[in-house]
UniProtKB/TrEMBL annotation:
Protein name (record): Aspartate-semialdehyde dehydrogenase
E.C. code: 1.2.1.11
Function: Catalyzes the NADPH-dependent formation of L-aspartate-semialdehyde (L-ASA) by the reductive dephosphorylation of L-aspartyl-4-phosphate.
Species annotation: Saccharopolyspora spinosa
Gene: asd
UniProt keyword Oxidoreductase, yes or no: yes
Length: 350
């Protein structure tokens, strides 16, 4: 029988992108596709591959007969319901942070560690955080050739990482500052937001319009944020390098969608720009946009909506041996979330 696929959180930001991905696939291996969401969204009609489907409410019976259930819901909902799906016989592929560091749950990027989908004692597979994921195709490919040793990363994260609330806030802030001539006196951007009646409470801790905010995620010990620790812990787990040296600074920028990262990566073996280019070009899910003379490089606005990881500005570090610096852009809602989750499901089905 062809497998049944369920999407839990089908009406959310990532769930909506998931359905778009399924609709654009040339073919899919699924028989039934079941859309599941909270009671608030149950009953909604959504067209998937030409068929109008009715969203059903999240309940244990919703998983009956499901082979693979993709979870695009907040951590606490996944923590509660992914085990329920697994108990009912489904493989749960979870895009939340609830299980990523559980030693009995594989953390999978199909370009890097596809075989891990089969090592799932809890019946749960985790999808990495979008910030880590945005650089994994590139790092995995380089690691295979040159042996990754150290990683120093700065992120430039889009507002949609904070969900629809983040997107709405950024647009409202941009509207509030547009044409006001602010940005050259300390505090005048915040004043313009207050004057426009925007609530002081923001998903970004500081004004995002005309600004960059060196904070993403929640507060953790010793000055680190959750996003920075995820980059460290998840990179180690996905690449299978438990003692990989990692240091990350995560920054929010006024971009709607697509996370970017400046990556400084040191390797066991010598690596040149030409060799790195060849490795990137050989990886089907990477698009190399790197022509120094012509000023070709990826930007979030230039690649948003695309499936691949875009890589550019590849340089051999001048003062560090066996080390590359490069810039990566990846759509945080596609490869960073919905697409990778869906690719895990395809890996399972094939
Ligand atoms: C963010 N990485 O960008 C988070 C979303 N999971 O806020």
């Amino acid at each position: 029988k062809t497998p049944t696929l369920a999407i839990v959180g089908a009406t959310g930001t990532v769930g909506t992108v998931m359905i778009d991905i399924i609709n654009r696939r040339e073919s899919v291996p699924w028989g039934e596709i079941r859309l599941i969401a909270s009671a608030r969204s149950a009953g909604k009609k959504i067209t998937v591959r030409g068929e109008e489907l009715t969203v059903v409410e999240l309940a244990p019976e919703a998983f009956d007969g499901v082979d693979i259930a993709l979870f695009d819901v907040p951590d606490e909902i996944s923590a509660q319901w992914a085990p329920v799906a697994a108990e009912r016989g489904a493989i749960a592929v979870d895009n939340s942070g609830a299980f990523r560091m559980d030693p009995d749950v594989p953390l999978v990027v199909p370009e890097v560690n596809p075989a891990k989908v089969h090592e799932r004692p809890k019946g749960i597979i985790a999808n990495p955080n979008c910030t880590t994921l945005s650089m994994m195709a590139a790092l995995g490919a380089l690691h295979r050739e040159f042996g990754l040793r150290e990683l120093v990363v700065s992120s430039y994260q889009a507002a949609s990482g904070a969900g629809q609330e983040g997107i709405d806030r950024l647009y409202a802030e941009i509207a509030a500052v547009a044409g006001k001539g602010v940005g050259s006196r300390a505090g005048d951007v915040a004043e313009a937001l207050a004057a426009a009646g925007l609530p002081e409470e923001t998903p970004f801790k500081a004004p995002l319009a005309l600004n960059v905010v060196p904070w993403a995620g929640s507060r953790k010990d010793d000055g680190w944020t959750s996003e920075e620790l995820k980059v460290r812990n998840e990179s180690r787990k996905i690449l299978g390098i438990p003692d990989l040296k990692v240091s990350a600074t995560c920054v929010r920028v006024p971009v709607v969608t697509t996370h970017s990262l400046a990556v400084h990566a040191a390797f066991e073996r010598e690596v040149t720009v030409e060799q790195a280019h060849r490795v990137f070009e050989a990886q089907p899910t990477i698009v190399l946009q790197d022509d120094h003379d012509k000023g070709v490089f990826p930007t979030p606005a230039g690649v948003v909506g695309g499936d691949p990881t875009y890589v550019g500005r590849v340089r051999q570090a001048l003062d560090f041996p066996n080390t590359l610096d490069f810039f990566v852009c990846g759509d945080n809602l596609r490869k960073g979330a919905a697409l990778n989750t869906y690719e895990i499901a395809e890996t399972l089905a094939n």
